[in-house]
Amino acid sequence: MTRIIAISDTHDHELPDHLIRLLRNADLIVHAGDFTSAACYEYLGSLGEMVAVHGNSDCAELRMLLPERVVFTVEDITIGMVHEGQLSTGDTSGLWYLAKELGVDVMVVGHIHTPFIEQSDVLIACPGSPTAPRLADKTVIELVIEGSRVHGQIISLGAGACFL
Fold first, then answer.
1. Whole-prediction pTM value?
2. Exposure of 4 by Cβ count < 10 A (0-12 exposed, 13-18 middle, 19+ buried)?
3. CB neighbours of 121 closer than 8 A, spacing ≥ 6?
4. 55 is in which domain, residue-wise?
């Protein structure tokens, strides 16, 4: 069994203590871009093994260091990740087509700051943002992989600024 914490759009903000514990206890951290600074990337990387892509708000150093998209395998599951896969939660068909093009079982995307998980023949997941959500709670996604099975759940880290 492999436990992954998927995160995105941290934007160089301070992370909640609860999130730091989740990241340290994960088998793998996946970050779908928008660290913003190299310092944020390095800090998150110090918490555990991490796979990451760059986002549209990342500094030039991270854009050169990190790929725009990545495909990797955990147990028997192939995972694809990109920062800007779509602009809203309303229609995920573009992400489904991208997942098919990449040949993945799971597609992780960032950018929209609002979490969702959609399951069809591909699991599509956006972890939202743990620091700067848009009309949503501060969130991450936990993916649990056992062989060829994957289960995803959104983990709330507390209300976003719009709920204060």
1. 0.93
2. buried
3. none
4. 2-163
The residues that bridge with 47 in the sheet, in sequence order, are none
pLDDT (tens digit per residue) in 32-49: 999 999 999 999 999 999
Rounded to whole angstroms, how far apart are CA atoms 146 and 156? 23
- Number of domains comprising the chain: 1
Closest CA relative to residue 62, chosen from 130, 2, 15, 10: 10
pLDDT mean over 144-156: 96
Residue 110 contacts by C-beta under 8 Å, 6 or more apart in sequence? 8, 9, 32, 33, 34, 55, 82, 83, 84, 126, 127
Phi-psi label, residue 158: left if phi above 0, alpha if psi -120 to 50, beta otherwise: left
For residues 129 and 10, the answer to whether their CB atoms sit within 8 Å is yes
Q: What CATH number corresponds to the domain at position 39?
A: 3.60.21.10
Total number of residues shown for the chain: 164
Residue 102's φ and ψ, nearest 5 degrees, are -80, -15
